[in-house]
Amino acid sequence: MYTNGNFEAHMAAACFLGTLALSVTLVVATIVLYFTRRHWAKYTLGALAVLLAGYVAVVSLFSYASYDRTVARGDEKFFCAMDCHIAYSVQKVERMKSIGDATAQGEFVVITVRSHFDERTIAPWRGNGALTPDPPTFELLGNGRGYTVSEPGQRAWEREHPAAHALTEPLRPGESYETTWVFDVPEGDASLRMFAGWHGFPSYVLIGDEATPGHGKTYFAL
Description:
Layout: E1 2-3, H1 9-36, H2 38-64, E2 69-71, E3 77-80, E4 85-99, E5 102-118, E6 137-142, E7 145-147, H3 151-160, E8 176-185, E9 193-197, E10 218-221
Parallel strand pairs: 1-3, 2-10
Antiparallel strand pairs: 3-4, 4-5, 5-8, 6-7, 6-9, 9-10
Helix pairs in contact: 1-2
């Protein structure tokens, strides 16, 4: 199974929340001791330093042990939603010079992505309730450059295909839908691959998450 990390997501969340809670406790204890028994404050401050250094070391270790992987077209990359998994896969890739009244500076690469609520990964207590996905950000990479979604191309595509789904559309276990993303890239670039990933807090500090500094990434082949 291809995922967005190399550490079990529930354990990563538990480690982060536990470290956060213990850090807050030590900070409060240090402040209290500073005003009551100042000579003891150095011990809680030292414990806080050891705790944070240890957490950073573990995050760095999992990043160091990771490596880049590439998902073949049609295969799925899973993102953990704690009690279930949402999987994304590339279903179709098209290249064209224009879409409606929009013309590419290079060429448009039109990628159809399938979003799938994998019913095999839900927790026993979850039930059949709908889930609104926390969608990843899509980016094309090629020849050392990154390309985000082309706003003119995307608008033109959506005018031509008004019934398209949105990435935030709720899904029930076993359901799926397809969305389409348009990128403007140099013509004939055969080195392209796509990255889909979460960014921002707390992904940057979760053990084993591909968003952490230096961590290997899981890409989609086109």
